[in-house]
Amino acid sequence: MTTAQTVLVLALLSTAAAMPAIAADTTCVPPNASVPAGGNTTDPKAPFFIDTTGLDLKTTPPTRDPHNPNYPKAAELPDGAVPSIDSDGNFIIGPTHRPSPETVAQANVPHGTVHTFIMTSADSVIYRPGMVRDDMLDCKNSAVNSASTALGDKSDLLVPASHPGSWTREVDVYVPAGYVAGTAAPFIVYGDGGRHSFFKEQMLFNVLDNLIHAHKLPPMVAIGIGAGGQDAQGSERGREYDTVSGTYAEWVEQEVLPRVEQNAHVRLTKDPDRRATMGFSSSAAAAFTMAWFRPDLYHRVLGYSPTMVNQQWPHDTALPGGAWQYHDEWPGPLKPNLTVSGNNVTPSSASNGIPLIPNSPRKPIRYWFEAGDRDLFYPVGPVADGMHDWTAANEDMARVLAAKGYHYQFVFSRNAGHVDEATEAQTLAEALEWLWKDGSGTDSR
């Protein structure tokens, strides 16, 4: 058993031991979408403050006001318009979301080909064993929605129903029409791929066909990697996408891309400026994490409703806020940061509460991202941690990216929910053009 496997198993066992087993529920526990019971909404100086400024709590989830004084200023565009590919900054669109013409297949445009192959945990080194959570039959995420948190820490969700297991996933590879064998192609890799994902892959392939044909994008490969299974804390999908480290990027580099080249008969560029990541919800957080920890591999990132909140599981004492700490300080009580080396646990001199982006040198990342006015808001009732508002998280991402001088475009979408399909269809073509602006085509590497 590898070190990574040992850490995973020990984390799962320690979580299970932290609380007694939960008796089987007789009814499905629905997800929450409002301020959790016992949430701190009154004292900003107390731990785990939940800011409800600018929220219409009469809707489920609450509807956000894009002109919330706590959000960075944004340019409001006419209904139906999207930001120019020549502009950076914050924008408000909607409430009408008509699909762009590039989302529709055109008879006179050459179509790329799609190759599909299967990956399993039995063949993996980095993600073997996988992670499986025992939910109630026909009740998605029931073990999460009915869980509890560690004593004194509302951010540390206990999920004893999670245990080592196995996974199988599809990988879809789009190869553009006219690809010349042997050339090093630029590519975009995205999570939540495969035929069973909630993202409409065919829409992406149509957009690529049309933009490549119009010479608005270089001929590029698109790699859709299926999630490892289930969702949220205690699942393989959550483990891969919500962990704030370079592990997922390294898995893609070492285990996925060689299979892509072999099965789709392509050669992929090594140039990080010709590589992009993309995702949806937690896979959007993973897309940013891939570039943040491995800017030697990726410079361009696109995300819809990125989960820049506290979803990392198992709980990490060195980064207790998970992806929330990209942009904001840890809002919980101060506690010691520990360094684990083998069997030795010692105090660390580094703070576990500081946000990553404001306290790191600017990285060569170009980032397009979006959140809806009815995006996710505290979906898990037990977690009243001040770090589960998706829209607030992305507004704060825009704030810290601007302060550090990043090239980014943030879109606040009116009349839009989480990973809003209508918003995707309206914005994807221009988002890809903006993302690839100043990018070049194939190279020799």
UniProtKB/TrEMBL annotation:
UniProt keyword annotation of Cell membrane present: no
GO molecular function, one term: hydrolase activity
SUPFAM superfamilies hit by this protein: alpha/beta-Hydrolases
Keywords, comma-separated and alphabetical: Hydrolase, Signal
InterPro entries linked to this entry: AB_hydrolase_fold, Esterase-like, Mycobacterial_A85_antigen
Pfam families: Esterase
Signal peptide: 1-23
Protein name: Alpha/beta hydrolase-fold protein
Species assigned in the record: Paraburkholderia strydomiana
